[in-house]
Amino acid sequence: MKKSAIILILALLVSTCLVGSVSAQDQITLTLWDIRTASDQVTPALKYAIERFESDYPQVKIDHVPTQNDNYKTKLRTAMSADNAPDIFMTWGSTGLKRYVEANKVYDLTSAIESGWRDNFMPAAMDLGTFSDHVYGVPVTNVAPAYIWYRTDLFEKYGISLPKTYADLKEVVAEFVENGITPFALANKNKWTGSMYYMYLVDRIGGSDALQKAINRTGAFNDQVFVEAGEKIQELVKMGAFPDGVNGLDEDAAQSRMLLYTDRAAMYLMGSWAYGTIKNENADILTKIDFMNFPAVESGQGDPSNLVGTPGDNYYSISAKSEHKEMAVEFLKYLTDEKMGESLIAVGNIPPFQGVGNKIDDPIMKKNYQTVQAAHYIQLWYDQSLPLELSQVHLNTTQALFSLEITPQAAADKMEAAAQEYYGN
Amino acid sequence: MKTNNLLSNKYFVAALFLVPALFFALVYLIIPIPLSAYYSLFKWDGIGAMKFLGIDNWAQLFSDTVFWKSVINNFKLVAISLIIQIPIALFLAVLLTRQIKGINFFKTIFFIPMLLSSIAVAFLWRYMYDPTFGLINGILNLVGLGHLTQSWLGDSSIAFYAAAAPIQWRFIPLYMIIFMAAISGIPEQLYEAAEIDGANNWQIFFFVTLPMLRGTVINASVLIIVGSLKYFAMIYALTGGGPNHASELMATYLYTKSFTEMNMGYGSTVSVALFLIALIVSVLFLRFNKKDIRN
Amino acid sequence: MIIKKIKAALIYLFLLIWLIITGYPMIFLVQNSFKIKMEFFQKPVWSLPASFTIKNYLDVINSGFYIYFFNSIIVCFISVFLIIIVSSLASYAIARIDFKFNKIIYILFLAGMMIPIHSTLIPIYKITLSLGIYDRLSALIGPYVAFSLPISVFILTGFINDIPYELEEAAIIDGANRIRIFKDIILPLVKPAISTVAIYNLTLLWNSFAYALVLTSSPTKRILTLGLFEFQGQHGIDIPLTLTALFLSVLPLIILYVFLQEHIIKGMTAGALKG
Questions:
Q1: Where exactly are the structural domains of chain C?
Q2: What is the first-listed, main subcellular location in coarse terms (chain C) (predicted)?
Q3: d(Cα C91, Cα B164) in Å, to the nearest integer?
Q4: A16 pLDDT exceeds 70?
C-alpha cells in the first residue's frame, strides 16, 4: 500500500518533469532573452511594451526570460555556441554583438530599418548595432554617458566648490579627505567601474583620438597619454580619493552607493543610469544629487565637453534561426516606439530615440539630455570599443593600477604587448 | 531457468548492475573530458570557426604565471581546508555526541551553514566583510582592535584567505555530521573498557575514537581534497578571482577564460589540466593511505 | 568537582561561540528581510528594522517563487532517488563481483569527481538539445545524477567493502542470485551510507546553479537558486528582497532537517563514510 503510493507519486513527479511547455496550435511564441529582472529599472517599460504588443497581436505570445547580468552572458554564449539562440535576444552592441554577427547567428535588420524605421533613432546610437553597413541590433535603452554624480549638500556643508580642472579636483579630494569623507564612492571588483576614471583621464589628456590612434596602430597603448592617465589614477589613490579596499567592493551589491547614501562619500563617477538607480533604491536622497562633467586636465588636449559612455545601453537583435522573424521585427518596433520612449523616460532613461528631448520634465534628466547634445564627442566604453582580447587586459591592468600593484608604465606596456599580439605588429 | 543461468554469470550481473551508472557517466561525465582535450588544441571563441593551434595552448599554459598562481592557491585551499575543517568538525562532533543539555538545538543551528547555497553564503559574507559597514570591522572597532580592521576582499595579500573563510564555514557542518555518525557507530564497549583502564577524555579520544575514525577521516579528506581542487562558487562570487588574480583558482580561471574572455580553447586547456592535477593528487593520496578498493 | 564544572563551562562557552559564528548570518538574513529597501541603505546593516514589514515576503512569494520551489523539489528528489539506486547498484558490482575491471571502473568513477563543472556546460548543453529535453526539468536530472555519482559510488563502495562477506556466502550457498542478495542482504545493511549519500547530494543539488542556468529557459522551468537573482537589476539591487528570497529558499531545508535530524543521524550512524 505504502509502496504503491510512493511509486504513484514518483510517477506523477516524473511525468510533470518530462512534459515540455505545451502551446496551443496557431499560436506563435516568441522567446525573448534579456536582463530585465524584477528589480531592473527598465523592466516596467519592457513589460508595458510586451502587453501592448500582445493585445495588438493576440495570436503571438512573448515568452520573456530575464536573467541577471553576468549569468545572462554565460547563458547566451552557451546557447549561441550550440546554435540555439532565442528568437529575440539582448546584447550591448559593438564587439560583443559583432562576434555573433560574424558567426552568422544574427538576422539582418537592414531592410526593415531602411523602410522608415531608422528615423526613430538617434543616428549615433545606430552605429553600435551596425556592421559593414548592415544593421543587426536596435538600441532600446539609455543614452548613458558617465558623469560625476555628487552630493550637493556635502559640497555645501564643507564650502567646497565644484572642480573645473584636475588641479581643482585634487583640492576637492584633499578637502573631503580632511573632513573624513571619502571623495569618490567606487566599487572596483567589477573593473569596468574603475575603468571610467582611466577613460576620462585619457580623453582629457590626449583628446578624443588618443584611443583611436592606438587602435589603428598609428599610436601605441604605451604612449605618454596612457601612462599619464595611470599616474593620475595612482595620484588620486594615494591621496585617499577612493574607499579602502576598493578592488574588493562589488558594484552589483551596491557597496559603492551605500557610501554615497550614508554621507560617507561625496562623489560617484557612474553612467547616467545612476540617477534611475538612486531613484529606485533611495529616492529620499534624490534632491541632494546632481552631476557634473569630468574636469579638464590643464594642458591636456581633450575637450571637457567630451563624454565617455554609450549612445544606447542595450541592443535587441533577432536570431538568424528564428522561425518568426517578421513577427519579431514587429515586436522590436514596439520596443522602440513613442510609447516605449515615454515609459523609458518615466523610469529615468534617456531613450536613444528621436524627439525625446521635449518630453523630459525632470530637471536632472533634462540636464543630462542637454549635456549629451552639447558633447562634441562620445567615447564608447573601452570594454566595448576594444576587441575582447584587449578589453580584458585593459580592465585587469586598470584594476591593478587602483591597488598600486602595477606601475603606470608597466600597465601601459602590458596593454601594448597584448595589442601587438592581437594586431600582429 | 534461463534468466537464472544468466544471473549466475557474474559478468552478466556485473554489467547489469553497472549499466545505469555507466549510462549517466558516459553521457554526462566521460564525453566532456576528451571533448575538452580536443578543444584545447584550437583557438576557438565557443561560437565561430575553430582554428587549429596544435599544442600552442599547452605551451602557453606552462608559461602562464596566472595559471600557476591559481594552482598554488588551489593547493593552499586544500591545506587550509584539511587543517581547519577536519579538526574543528571532529571536535564539534565529539562534543555533540556527549550528553549535554540543549544538544539538539546546537546540532540544528550548527548544521545551517551547510544548508545555505554558496550564492547565499557569498552574498551574506560580502556584507560581513564590507570595510565600512561590515560586521567584522565593526566588531574589531568595538573591542578596541581598530588597528586590525582590513579591507578584507580588496587587499591582494589577504583576499584569498578572506574568501576561503566562508568555504570553511559552510563545509565544517558536513564533516561534523559525518563524524558524528561515525562516532555514534563506535561500540560502547570500547569506551567502557577504556574508562575501566582509567583513561581520561583526551586519552579516550586519541586511543579509542580517533583510531576508529581513521577510515572516515581518510574519506572525508578525499572529499575535501577533490572539492578544494575544483572549487569555484564562493571565490568567484566574492572576489571573481581578484584582485589582480590574488584569489584565482583553476576553476575560476577556466571560467573567466571560457566565458568572460570567450577563449574556449584556452579555457578547455585549463580544465583538462585541472582534471589531471586533481586525479593525480587523489590517486596519490589514496595510495599513500593504502585506502584502496579490494585491499 | 570544580574542575568538572569549569570544564562544562568551557564546553558551553565554545558551543556558544560556535553558535554565534554559525547562527549570526541567519539572524542577519532574517532581520534584514523585514527591512524596506531604503532602510537598508540608510542605516547600519546590523541595525534592527524600524518597523517590521512583510512586504518583502509577499513580493518574493508573488514573483513565482513557489513554482521555482516546486520545480526544485521535483528535480532534487527524483535525482536523489535515482542516484541512490544507480550508485548502490554500481557500488555493489564494484565491491563484490569480481569481473576483472573493478579497479578500472572504480578509478573511472573516481575520475568523474575531478571534472570541473564549467568545462561541461557546452557539451552537456549540446547533448541536452540532441536528446530533445532542452528547457524541461528532466534536462537537469541527467547531469545532476551524473555529477553526484562519483562521490556516491566512492562512499557506498567503501561501505560495502566493510560488510563481512560471510553474510552473503550463506545466501549464495542457498542458491540465491545476485539481485536477491543485493535487495535482501546488502541494501538493508547499507541504509546508513545511503542516508549519507542522500543528504550530501540533496544539499548540493538543492543549491546547484550552473546547469539550471543554461539548460532551462522558461520561467515556469526555473529552480530556486536561479530565482534568487530576480532581484538584481542591471544597475541596481533590492538587497532586503534578495535576503528574503535567500531565507525562504533555505527555510524548507532547515525545517526538513529539524524534523529528520534524529533519523538522519541515526541512519548515518553505524558507519557512514567508514573505510
A1: 54-268
A2: membrane
A3: 33
A4: no
Q: Which of residues 85-114 of C touch B (CB under 8 A)?
A: 85-87, 89-90, 92-95, 97-99, 102-103, 105-114
- Residues A49, A51, A55, A61, CA torsion sign: positive
Other chains touching C, judged by 3 or more CB pairs under 8 Å? A, B
Please identify which residue in the block is written with the cell numbers 538539445.
Answer: C129
C-alpha B221/C-alpha B217 separation (Å) is: 6
b/e map of A262-296 (b: 16 or more CB within 10 Å)? bebbbbbbbbbbbbbbbbbbbeebeebbbbebbbb
Top-confidence residue, C196 or A194:
A194
For B257, the grid coordinates are: 577564460
User: Cis link prior to B243 (omega < 30° from 0)?
Assistant: yes
Query: Of all helices (H) and strands (E), which one includes residue C134?
Result: none
pLDDT digits (tens, 9 = 90+) for C134-161: 999 999 999 999 999 998 998 898 888 8
A185-209 in b/e form (b: 16+ CB < 10 A) is bbbbbbbbbbbbbbbbbbbbbbbbb
CATH 3.40.50.980 fits C54-268, yes or no: no
Whether residue C139 contacts residue C128, with contact meaning beta carbons closer than 8 Å, is answered with yes
pTM: 0.89
Chain B 55-84, residues with CB within 8 Å of chain C CB atoms: none
Residue B47: list chain A partners with CB under 8 A: 77, 80-81, 99-100, 103, 105
Q: How far is B204 from chain A (nearest CA, A)?
A: 45
Can you tell me which residue has the cell 554624480? A149
For A146-165, write each residue's pLDDT tens digit: 999 999 999 999 999 999 99
Confirm or reject contact between B107 and chain C (CB < 8 A).
yes
Q: How far apart are CA A167 and CA A169, in angstroms?
A: 5
Alpha carbons B42 and B268: distance in angstroms, whole number: 9
Give the A:B interface size as CB pairs under 8 Å.
Answer: 99
Report the side by side order of strands in the sheet with A88-91: A60-66, A28-34, A88-91, A315-318, A138-139
The rounded distance, in Å, linking the Cα atoms of C213 and C224 is 11
d(CA B196, CA B30): 54
Q: Which residues of A touch B155 (CB under 8 A)?
A: 245, 248, 403
C-alpha cell at B176: 561534523
Residues in C touching A78 (Cβ below 8 Å): 121-122, 125, 214
CA–CA distances in Å: residue A335 to residues A62, A144, A338? 12, 18, 9
* Local structure of B254: helix, strand or coil: helix
Q: Are strands A289-292 and A265-271 parallel, antiparallel or unpaired?
A: unpaired
For residues A55 and A58, give the distance between their C-alpha atoms in angstroms, rounded to a whole number. 5
**Residue ranges per structural domain of chain B:** 64-288
SS3 content of chain C, % helix, strand, coil (to 5): 75, 0, 20
The answer to whether C41 contacts A261, with C-beta atoms less than 8 Å apart, is yes
Q: Which tens digits make up the pLDDT trace of C57-85?
A: 988 888 778 888 899 999 999 999 999 99
Higher pLDDT, C266 or A404: A404
Domain B64-288, second-level architecture: Orthogonal Bundle (1.10)
Reported as a pLDDT band with limits 50, 70 and 90, residue A6 is low
Name A307's bridge partners: A378
Q: C200 is written with which cell numbers?
A: 550530501
- Tens of pLDDT along A210-221? 999 999 999 999
Q: Please report which helix (H) or strand (E) contains residue B126, including its range.
A: helix B118-129
SS3 B172: helix
Query: Which segment of A226-230, B20-24, C6-10 scores lowest on mean pLDDT?
Result: C6-10
In chain A, what are the domains? 26-143+311-354 (3.40.190.10), 146-310+381-423 (3.40.190.10)
CB C115 within 8 A of CB C101: no
